[in-house]
Amino acid sequence: MHDNLIILAGGASSRMKKQVSLDNLSEEEIAQANERSKGLIGVGPNGRPLLDYLLLNAKKAGYKNIYIIIGEQGDLFKEFYGSDDKNNDFHGLNISFAVQYIPEGRVKPFGTADALFQAVEQYPELNTLYYSVCNSDNLYSAKALYALRETASPNAFISYNRDALEFPLERISRFAIAKLDENNCLLDILEKPTADVLDSYKDAEGILRVSMNAFKFDGAILYPYLKNCPVNPERDEKELPTVLLNSLKKNGNTALGIPFSEHVPDLTAKEDIAEVKEYLKKHYPQLDWNA
């Protein structure tokens, strides 16, 4: 098992910042949605952010070293989780920060693969270790995070049952789907699938599987593919699924899709804030760091 979790929190949060009219949000919540990184929006009691709950689940899953990738204006993370660049103690977790710098000539960050590449350049020891990677605006369960730690596969991802995700169908239809072989090894990931291909992507149990960006990687295997990741021509970003698929071309069946059937709360847009708050009230009546 490994002890390292990298959390992607340096994105531009463009969809969260879109202007919408909602009567179930306070002025303070709208202001936070427009100004903060998504994982720092105060959806918990006393204004604590969603990231608290992800870190709690990471601790329950046994992670010890947390690397949070923040943007160039990410100082607010240090107000919540420690003022030093490295080795902050937050409820027994060792938290360090990596910065995703925006390349010259761009307005927005260069994608998830660029974020991870910049992080391992700033912490090169990760290139000799196994580590997990996930989003800051999704609340993955402790069980799912533990599954990434315990798998013997060099690379892996949580392969979610699409039908178990409690989102509107229109939203789910935009999620990337994964094609797995009979042993649940990854064959392909398809972004924005069309209805005519869905049947060909069902797994051996007839289930459509989606990735919610929860990965385990072998740092040594992944590094050259991170460094040389091509730019997606449609989204003009470097993306982690591309890195993983490119590594499989040379390294064979080394990425296991770990099947899970559960909901993953998500803070993508302002419309999600009230739903996530209700989810936390129901499932996390209190944050118990000593449990």
Automatic annotation (TrEMBL):
Domain Nucleotidyl transferase: 35-242
Protein's UniProt keywords contain RNA-binding: no
InterPro entries (UniProt xref): GlmU-like (IPR050065), NTP_transferase_dom (IPR005835), Nucleotide-diphossugar_trans (IPR029044)
Keywords, sorted A to Z: Nucleotidyltransferase, Transferase
Keyword Transferase: yes
Pfam families registered for this protein in UniProt: NTP_transferase (PF00483)
PANTHER family: N-ACETYLMURAMATE ALPHA-1-PHOSPHATE URIDYLYLTRANSFERASE, NUCLEOTIDYL TRANSFERASE
Entry protein name: Nucleotidyltransferase
Organism, scientific name: Flavobacterium ranwuense
The organism's taxonomic lineage, starting at the top: Bacteria, Pseudomonadati, Bacteroidota, Flavobacteriia, Flavobacteriales
